[in-house]
């Protein structure tokens, strides 16, 4: 395991109490906390380098541009991209997926064409395709989930056909933690000439990724779920795809020449970055990536896998707790969704908060999956590099508290 | 470490209504029906009223959700059954101001006072409010129907 004590020293927010107890932050699938290296990078940028980037002649503009493009190069290396020009900065993973649905989808998806999705997707990897389908008369097909929370690969294989233009699937479920066999899905998609978009919002921060071997054509992820600031997302795509795609948003920075009758577009990746980008947060995101590289993604993964195994084992011993998703920690990232017999997820989260334990309750922006699981909502604990076994114990203590308040075998069961 | 205090939110009365909801289930012959969903959390309340001569003769609710939303609905049904429409609306107004504005509970609220603790937890206020918003919609329908009868 990572040296959690040392890691925690880097995260100022964790040095606080909530309701008189040590803050135990287990809502990392929603957003992670930020190390001081990232926070300091933000302050340093505004105190020493702030200027608008690109085309600037003066010293600050050159410095800001160098730092911004330096962050892009670091992100490109981190994911194994063919070069920095394959990395487009957006507001978040959602915007990255919308960019593909708009720019690529509007150009290359026609009436009757099909997009294959999974019931495990976050709304951000469903709704943009629903909008595209409505605009273009395309058809959406959804692959289901097995009872133990795995993707139904046979169904995906059946659904992919000659009309399939795109398969869009998550690398790792934000609810079940399930790690999907992305390379296998890529092979299925490519066998009929379809492309694969991977939602890496959960996978990239916790499993790492190497797009040179992943087999995906598009990859979307968010900085704020990997120790970076909010307001920055990444779209990676193969260079020839980005070149073939028309722009997404129009404005400054994305053009080469503007004439009254029309304009030509800037080189990659600037063609897709209209207007002044989120310079400070991108630079700070570079520091977050450096922090993860310092820990080593293999170590991060091992650490979170061990924590997940411990959580699965400890939660199984709390009366009335039912955990969703694969039974083995090797097949899942550090996300554990569960239901309690005695109480509704919102009550579980409220009581856990009283113990200083931050967990999430609800549909986790995955209503299709909730319906497939047959529950309106779940409680979810999710881990990061600063979580240790003591956090799992705090969660267990909180869940035992839930059982005390609600009394086992009562509550929800009696209401339904 | 001691037990964190939940007494204020999860009062016995709330837990009791959650475990043994009153007036649960649809009515055989409702005059008005209303429903509401909290899109953020998926809580769901359906409410049937049987209204005659400006009085709520019978009331039934069903739905799903957390202890706060379901017990609030259960307490609501007990409180408005047999009341005139104006009285029911007045109670809804008082519960709203207790939950939303943090007004001290009116003594006429009786058991509903148990919901007072929710007002201190802004993220849970919407859970308690859901049933009352559904009631206000049902009352609006009941009044509209009565007016139509008078004019029609």
| Strand line-up of the largest beta sheet of chain B | 1-2-3
Rg of chain A, Cα atoms, Å: 22 Å
Mean pLDDT of chain A: 95
CATH class annotation of chain B: Alpha Beta
> Total number of β-strand segments of chain B?
3
Low-confidence segments of chain B, given as residue ranges, are none
Largest beta-sheet details of chain B: 3 strands, antiparallel
- Sheet with most strands of chain A: 7 strands, mixed
Number of helices of chain A: 16
Q: Biggest sheet of chain A, strands in spatial order?
A: 4-10-9-8-7-5-6
The class by helix and strand makeup of chain B works out as alpha+beta
Approximately how much beta-strand content do the residues of chain B carry? 15-25%
Can you put this structure into words, describing what you see?
- The complex is a heterodimer of chains A (416) and B (152).
- Chain A is of the alpha/beta class and 416 residues long.
- In chain A, 42% of the residues lie in helices and 17% in strands.
- Chain A contains 16 helices and 17 strands.
- Chain A has helices at 4-9, 36-49, 59-79, 93-108, 127-136, 153-159, 182-191, 203-207, 211-214, 239-244, 279-295, 297-316, 345-354, 367-373, 389-406, 412-415, and strands at residues 17-18, 21-22, 24-25, 87-90, 114-118, 139-143, 164-170, 195-199, 218-222, 233-237, 255-259, 262-265, 321-323, 335-340, 357-358, 360-362, 378-382.
- In chain A, the strands form 5 sheets. In chain A, strands 4-10-9-8-7-5-6 form a 7-stranded mixed β-sheet, sandwiched between helices. In chain A, strands 13-14-17-16 form a 4-stranded antiparallel β-sheet, covered by helices on one side. Chain A has a two-stranded antiparallel ribbon with strand order 1-2.
- In chain A, α2 (36-49) runs antiparallel to α11 (279-295), α4 (93-108) packs parallel to α5 (127-136) and α13 packs across α15.
- Chain A starts with a helix and ends with a helix.
- The model of chain A is unreliable at 408-416 (pLDDT under 50).
- With 152 residues, chain B is an alpha+beta fold.
- Chain B has a single domain (12-151), classed as Sufe protein. Chain: A (Alpha-Beta Complex), CATH 3.90.1010.10.
- Chain B contains 4 helices and 3 strands.
- Chain B has helices spanning 12-19, 67-80, 85-100, 122-151, and strands spanning 32-37, 44-52, 55-64.
- A 3-stranded antiparallel β-sheet of chain B has the order 1-2-3, covered by helices on one side.
- In chain B, α1 crosses α2.
- Chain B starts with 11 loop residues before the first helix and ends with a helix.
- The model of chain B has no long low-confidence stretch (mean pLDDT 91).
- The A-B interface holds A 19-21, 343-347, 350-351, 354-355, 361-363, 370, 376-377, 401, 404-407, 410-411, 414-416 and B 1, 3-6, 9-10, 15, 18-21, 40-44, 64-68, 70, 121, 123-124, 127.
